[in-house]
Amino acid sequence: MNIRSRETVLARGLITLLLMVGAFTTVYAQDSTETPEAPETGIEATVMSMPGELVDVGGYQLHIYCLGEGSPTVVLDAGAGDWSLAMLPLQQQLAEFTRTCVYDRAGNGWSEAGPLPVTAQGNADALYALLTNAEIEAPYVLVGHSYGGLNVRLLASQHSESIAGVVLIDARPPGMRVVESEQFPEVLAMFQQQIDSVTPFIELLQSEPIPPEAAAQFVPEEFVPATLPTELRQTYKQQLATLGYLEAMVSLIENLEVSEEQVAGTELGDIPLVVLVAGEPGASPMGTEQAAAMQQAWIALQEEQATISTQSTVILVEDSGHYIYVDQPQIVIDAIREIVEAARTE
Length: 346
Hints:
Number of helices: 13
Radius of gyration: 19 Å
CATH architecture: 3-Layer(aba) Sandwich
CATH class: Alpha Beta
Distance between the termini: 38 Å
CATH superfamily: Alpha/Beta hydrolase fold, catalytic domain
CATH topology: Rossmann fold
Shape: globular
Largest sheet: 8 strands, mixed
């Protein structure tokens, strides 16, 4: 089972940077005139070429990659710290019965850096512009994991005429930041400490860029999704080591409450909605008792989130951590397939 907790996922980009900076600085300080030597991993450092296309969304370009045929089109939005590469295995399975697209938010994956701050409204606007400018015809089934759920819920509420359904995969619900602030202040303190620690290095990268291929050597293997094959892991590491990614990740975390406020109160009417909730909280940096308490708060907000549609289903996925599409992929596939098939009969 994938045991990464929701808090660990949000912090992963920052934790990765802290570990990477420590290792890189130690090696680089030995002789700043030489390229740092990569640690022994036994893995060939191969890099995947961009599989899709770059599309302008208003001054910057986002990467989108589609597979399969058929309508409606499924659009996958990854969680914080993740990008299209993490969802390729799911995309490939969904593409067997309908067209399925993955994309990278600004600063992530193969996409260019975009405007700051990073908010759900900005992401929703960019995704809709991407689908429109890439000539991806509606209707869409929007699928959001974790933070991606905020984006797709907002987009669906504002462009309901283009939406055939929504699937939320253990998606972050509006109100969670308030719960964290009132009941679990240690979580917010952890994030702020990490942001304070990495900000000076981001400023350094802005003035003295480090090549991603050099910095990627020091990204720990455990921060790469376990589902990725060997030949794709170096690609993932290089993306984690870019300035655009780190700036976007910090801004995303700093503006979580803003994003949740933007989504709060949105309704989907009679748009079919499936809310998948992880049955296991996963390993929490705050300890077992707090993880259990946060899980109960999370489930309560998920049940509330399901009320935004008159055609909603809540499924508590036992034996699954936050990454349901990794731990129990068939449940995710079945939920999406049901919405796709229903849309085809209308």
